[in-house]
Amino acid sequence: MHNLAIALLNKGYSVSGSDDEIFEPSRSRLEKYGLLPLKWGWDRIKITRDIDTVILGMHAKADNPELIEAKNLGIKIMSFPEYLYDQTKTKKRIVIAGSHGKTTTTAMIMHVLRLLEIKFDYMVGSQIDGFETMVGLSDDALISVFEGDEYLTSALDKRPKFHLYMPDIAVLNGIAWDHMNVFPTFDNYVEQFRIFTDKISDNGSLIYFADDPEVAKVALSARENIRKIPYKVHGYFQNKTGFYAATHNRVVPVKIFGEHNMQNLSAAKEVCLAVGVKEDDFYEAIKSFEGTSRRLQKIKENENGLVFLDFAHSPSKVKATVEAIGSRYPGREIVVCLELHTYSSLSSNFLPLYKDTLSGAKNAYVYFNPHAIKLKKLDDLSKEAVYKAFGGGNVKVYDNSENMFSHIKSQNYKCPVYLLMSSGDFDGFDINHLID
Fold this sequence. Notes:
This protein has helices at residues 2-10, 26-32, 65-72, 80-88, 102-115, 186-198, 213-221, 259-274, 279-286, 315-328, 370-375, 383-390, 401-410, and strands at 53-56, 76-79, 92-97, 121-123, 135-136, 143-147, 169-172, 205-209, 227-231, 236-239, 242-247, 250-254, 297-302, 305-310, 334-340, 363-368, 395-398, 417-421. By secondary structure, it is α/β, with parallel strands linked by helices.
């Protein structure tokens, strides 16, 4: 939401906002642009008749006093995804969906289009080099590129966000059950992707990962008046000099690594070709793509080791990320730390899906905060239950992050590669200190 506020300010709109809490980096960025509210909280007197549109974030509940006042005054009220669609409804909309790889695939497409000087609007879920904000809107772009999140639109609209974007080109990169607090069964979760494909415009395109059986089923059942474009994991190899994307007639050095990223690259390539980018230009541009914030992001490297941070939290993401690090750094001491932070990951019903996801790491640590469980009003978890769910003798479980990192540092690993995975922050631990 704060990125949308900045994007609209940059477009020349008059923007104001409210929230009950504002954290970093949102706070500093809003302050930089003169958008930081003078005080926290909600106040109906902020809503006046000269406001054209009120845009809801996820925190605005039905009894919100500003929302009630906007309704009383007859002001147009829109959710975040509704507003993005409204701003881009005359453009070719590209929407990247799937349980994993959304952000990276979106970022790859944005990177290529920017280098080729093709104008486009965008919305992506992570900070990307070369882009000031995570939302960009304009009057003259003919293309829009959106990351299609399947989470709910707002507290008042229980539709998944990606149902509102109405894609002309849709990407479906993988389906693995997530957000069980919203989608209580796997079938219910998969159904959201079927609905998404049904939103593709007539004569539009569905670009899908053919080797995911659930994705393939959804693609097969999609209506026939859209173009269906399957893709597979891009060819690749690695050696001591680096990681390479490869085809039968070219070898391209890339700065990313891992099979999952080669899957993302294939999806990004198909999208770029669909909007007229030449294959040679795509490969030349993708060479310089370095990834995005918190997606296998290299945080620190020195003679004492290497630290990566990743947003991975669902079982499929965790497993793929661990395998990518193990493959890229054979022979190195790999130390994996996973924080269970989301509603699903802290649910005793969901935990068994993590079985063997950390088996690719000799040294694996799992952390959860009992306070977070209470805040989410979930049943208590024991360290023994978490250990049993992961099913590996290599796993150590902690419910205190300070104790976990103290133990890790006491092991004196020799030039280790640390992989920290979380949608949280390990209770504020400064991960740079792992390799002081």
